[in-house]
Amino acid sequence: VNQSKLDLFCKLGYGKQDICKVLENLGPEALEDDVLKELIRMGSKPQALENQAQPSSLKLVARGSCSTTPGLKCLGEDESDSSDSLRPIVIDGSNVAMSHGNKEVFSCWGIQLAVDWFRERGHTYIKVFVPLWRKEPPRQDSPIADQHILEELEKQSILVYTPSRKVKGKRVVCYDDRYIVKVAYEKDGIIVSNDHYRDLQNENPEWKWFIEQRLLMYSFVSNRFMPPDDPLGRHGPTLDNFLSKKPVLPEKKLQPCPYGKKCTYGNKCKFYHPERLRQAQLSVADELRAKTKVLLTLGKEEERCNCS
Question: Residue limits of the C3H1-type domain (predicted)?
């Protein structure tokens, strides 16, 4: 079994038995992308998700608790992310770096700016995916700026390289977009990219919904990472709610009636009437009937007085 492939998919959270089984079926020379497809086809899930799904022998921990079970760390994950109120973040490193480099330079500083932005907000699970060949010395046709940042982020277990290799002098690159969408989907997190992944949307209907609802676009303004305040449009959730597992609904404040006590709508009025809180709200017709009764009784009393 190819040890490098085994280590790679172990980092992504898959069990050794499933990986070894797929590698035996496909052979040691199988491409990493093919191995990933086979794991997806088998329905294999990362160990972290399987452990969450198994109720037996696992200690239940209340949400917000910091207690964790040791030995379940994979890919350098913080176990506190499962109880965190903020969603996991999966960053399309190539998209962010090229966007910061004005589509001319692979700017690693742009990735650092995005990571720092989410760190400052309190996100504990942040993963950046970048193709492995970006570790190579830069060439004229693919310039890279601040390449040392990639090494630093890899040491912090934030950056993950998607596999690539050379066959007869030609580079064979695995589809890193599939890694990004798959990990974000399984972690129920947020994809940070300006790419719409239309090919992956057509490939999987569940991914299509997920990409439409969980894609966070962004801009760089004077070396400042800026996502929109309304990620899903004017009528969608705010940025805070979009990034949170438990969105906070705004309190509905009742608008006072502009007519005040002169309002004639009765209980059909949609505005707030503080003077009507203690009294039963009558409809306009009931109010008129009540007034006519009062007038009739007053009129009868006057007639009696006049007769007497």
Answer: 251-276
pLDDT in tens, 55-80: 444 444 444 434 344 433 444 444 44
Regarding whether 282 and 201 lie in a shared domain, the answer is no
Residue 60 forms part of a structural domain = no
Assess if residue 138 is contained within a domain. Answer: yes
Q: 133 and 164 in contact (C-beta within 8 Å)?
A: yes
User: Which residue range(s) make up the domain with 261?
Assistant: 251-307
**H helical segments located in 43-147:** 47-53, 93-100, 108-121
Same domain as 7, residue 107:
no
CB 8 within 8 A of CB 163: yes
Closest to 114 in 3D by CA, of 129, 130, 101, 96: 96
Helix (H) or strand (E) holding 145: strand 144-145
Question: Which of left, alpha, beta for 21 (phi over 0: left; psi -120 to 50: alpha)?
Answer: alpha
